[in-house]
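Re: the multi-chain job from yesterday

Posting the exact lines I submitted so nobody has to dig through the queue logs.
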Amino acid sequence: MRVFHLSQPFIVKMSTILVLIIYLSSLSGCKRTDSVKKSAGTDAKLHGTITLSGAFALYPMTVKWAEEFRKLHPDVRIDISAGGAGKGMADALSGTVDLGMFSREIMPAEKERDVWWIAVTKDAVLPTISARNPVINELKKQGVTQVQFRAMFIDETLRDWGELLGSVPKAPIHLYTRSDACGAAGTWAQYLGGVQEDLHGIGVYGDPGLAEAVKKDPLGIGYNNTIYIYSAGTNQKYPGLEVIPIDINANGRIDPEEDFYDSMTAMMAAIAAGRYPSPPARELYFVARGKPESPVVCEFLKWILSEGQPYVSSAGYVPLSREVISEQLEKLR
Amino acid sequence: MRRKNIEERIFKSLAAAATYLIIAVLLFLIVVILKNGLRALDWGMLTKVPQGGFYFGEEGGILNAIVGSFYLALGATFLAFIIGLPVALYMNIHLLRQRFWLNRIRFLLDVLWGVPSIVYGAFGFTLMLLLGLRASLLAGILTVTLLIVPIMIRSMDEVLQTIPRGLLESAYALGSTRSEVAIKVYIRQALPGVITALLLSFGRGIGDAAAVLFTAGYTDYIPTSLNQPTATLPLAIFFQLSSPIPAVRERAYASAVVLTVIILIVSLAARLLSAKYREHVIK
Amino acid sequence: MHRRKIIDRLISGWMAAGLFFVLMIPLAIGLGLVLKSLPILKILALPELLGGSIWKPLSGQFGFKPFILSSVYVTLISFLIAGPVCLLSAIYLTQYASRRLLSLMQPVIDILAGIPSVVYGVWGVLVIVPFVIRLAELREVAISGYCLLSGGIVLAVMSIPFILNILIEVIQAIPIELKEASLSVGASYWETIKWVLLRAGFSGIMAAFGLGISKALGETIAVLMVVGNVVQIPQSLFEAGYPLPALIANNYGEMMSIPLYDSALMFGALILFVIIVLFNGLARLAINHGERYR
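And the result, structure tokens for all chains:
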């Protein structure tokens, strides 16, 4: 009467279960250990994981920073996903990621939950339309004012492209906005005197999604982060996408000093110099629940504020000024 | 009399049209997916991870999603199996006499089968926070396991129900205990059905996006431990489809094709295997 | 002998434990959702939550009506398309068509049922949205294509394999004696179908529809990709909607920043859970009731 015969499936099942339990419990221990493991002394070779999630605006920059940082510290694994600034904040506050990528002003409710933040770079949100828009040439010459944008996106009193230009009704305006909780919408709404939920329009997920939807619809209008409008590689806008110049002084036309949308370098220079209003230009932050304790994370942040800054311009963003940088470095102490 | 005939003929052609329409829609769907996806597929797409970030990078492929999905679906199927098989056996052997409870349990399982995956996703997210887990392979596996357990149990249950009672009774007559009957007799008899249940559950688990949306995270890399976030094919499609950057969209189409092909293989395999093994089953 | 008995006890115990665990799952889900919804239920009354039309979480207004109505509308549209198609097809396959066609249809149904939601979404974006834009152009309306109609069509296609499968089972379960009796008293095939089969299978057919509807109500990803996600009560087929599952999927990210938002979203999930469980429950009861007469 051989009971423990190896061929019995029950035994196999039981042992696999035991093995699985042992494996699982050993792995959940890694969570703590690998970020605490750091080489003694110099920061020669760091070891650990950093997880980030959040704003689409920061995604490409963070990816670039991660790539360069890993060249110096190949044993550090950096997991980056997007999902919108709201997700970044939510994940950071619940401890599911190390750092949240954030692209709008922090709200009081968030400050109450001891959020810690640090500015890392700067960019802007621009109003976007399809390159096939029927009145694009007039729009580029005339521009649109802040008041008119508000009338379109928030009050919905301006509903026609012709009316927007001050002439006869021509074609309806198709508004697009973001369906995920994000910084681009928050910042754009802030410029127009409201909050994300005041913005009307078809909700599309993600910045790339919004750009694509606007591209496809000749009557569409939306808003995007600069990094999804201009390609860093070509210094030009992505084909099919156009930007409505903002008529900042509201004089009914785009003056030479308001005209900086043709190339990425011109756009970024305008943002840096403050010629493009802020908002919708804004600083981009990393957020966390309290000051990060993991040494790997702190090293990464320090690196971003020092050796990481030169990568900012070529990646299509605006570098922080020196005063702002030293302020942030203070926060890291 | 004539009117009845005309009525019948109209009805019959409408009904036939409806049937062929359904077949046509399926073909159309597969053609569209294949057309867009095969264009994007090449060896590099299947063997590399995205370079430069999955939302943004212009190079690399979807290996992270393929491997991640397999890890996740295999893990969840395995867990659901070790929970589900005992339960299905218990229902059909130990509880065989208790019709009342059996019916209630089957009812409950059927209802669970109908719960939308987003609810499982929301529940999984809450569970994840409760257990202190991060968005990770483990959290994803746990959530998908919950999702597919009803499918696993009910499918196996259906098969076990077809095993002739005589088999059970003769085993008892020869002196075997209930668990011995379960393991030595029933599993062998129900093998085709068990495999079908496994395949069905695997197919459901690998394709579901809502359950992993909150719980598995996403990453450019292939996970090396249960605690890391993982890319999955459904989310690879969802996140990369609406990008203005063509290379990113290509990855989404490629993922769609890979996923569809996996499902096709799984569905057909389930059918073929159950037909083939039926030879060995005592009727 | 003792050893075998002990092993038997152990294994049986393990099995029973598994069963207990599985039965706890729906309870845990229900309880979890209720607990997480309590904060918002304490502040806003149920009628206000369900009937309110304004959704502005930042100002503490959580009216679920636009989402509930969007869900209902888009499900209704999908049902109006899928229901008749499935019924017609089921009757054809079981009564008129050759057996070969029926066995050909089985894998077709399986495959359609197995295709993941997200792939349907891709198909919807590539095919259905432009199609709906073209439809609207015929009526001289310029729309974006992301609307209730697109959502309804995609959902219809997704529901078809599900409903069809159950309908075929239901019709095949109707005792053949009924059919034979009807034919033997001189009714034609068509009359038999119309008056006898459909009557006998009525509860099963209703149940199949009920299950299809509840599946459509819960469908998240495919619909989210084509329905527009605009918080409004849609006034026409060509307007965008925002079904309840899409609300949860899109916004879970903002859950922490705004007070009560996470509780509201969990409440939304609770509504979904309750409605679907009810629908499913009733439908399954109807099927079981019908099967008792086999």
